[in-house]
Amino acid sequence: MRPAQRWKGVPVTTPRPSVRRKIAVATWRAPREGRLHARMAVDATAVLDYCRSRRAEHGVQVTPGLVVGMAFARGVLEVPEFLNRVVFGRIVPFPSQDVAFAVDIGDGDDLAPTKVRDVDGKTVVEVARELEAGAARLRARQDSDYETTSGIARAVPWFALRPMLSAASLLNGGIGVRAFGQPAHPLGSLFVTNIGSFGLDEGYVAPVPLARVPLYVCVGAVSEAPMAVDGQVVVRPQVVMTATADHRLVDGAHAARLARFVRAALADPESIEAPVRR
User: Mean pLDDT over residues 128-157, rounded?
Assistant: First the structure.
């Protein structure tokens, strides 16, 4: 903790910034690049039923956030424009479909990604098992990539961190090689965060420039809400999802195609359970 200061005459103690906060300060500047934002609210009844059945059958933590992430992962295979990144002004495809999920490792004060590789070749339950194992490693401080990067970020002064992150953007996110303790494409081609676990209904993700991720998805809390069903107003569990996409790669037509797929998938989660390829 930092020494107590006074704000409007009231003594306050400011905690030292976390590694994530230090990286954030060195990462983001004033917005300059085009972003496409979208919001969608859906009936979560089928999603909740699916989660309960998979937990009971397989003993693994299948959550609404995971199911939403998998729906988007399957959907972008139908809209392949979302599977690209920009490198040296050129649109370049990702070599594989990897998805990163945000994991809370500091009671909301620190987040870290767990990346699941080759999601298109895995079932929902297989992805859930990998995500569960990855989250356990992060919380036990046994994830070597995250610990290496955190150590570097703690040691490097703020004025040197920004150029280091610029180099990481080119090497990690652009060219796709390991650097600064991070693997190639550290956040994959899709990043999913579940703010519903903090009780928030909805929000938008701030893109991480160094990762060059084309699509970010934010999943809100499941809550009761009135909605129209067969011409009648009923109360059902609802989940709100928001997306932030790279407007250099996609536009509204692509977003609409993806939204239609995701809406249908969440109405019938079993339709996305099987892998697309093996």
Answer: 92
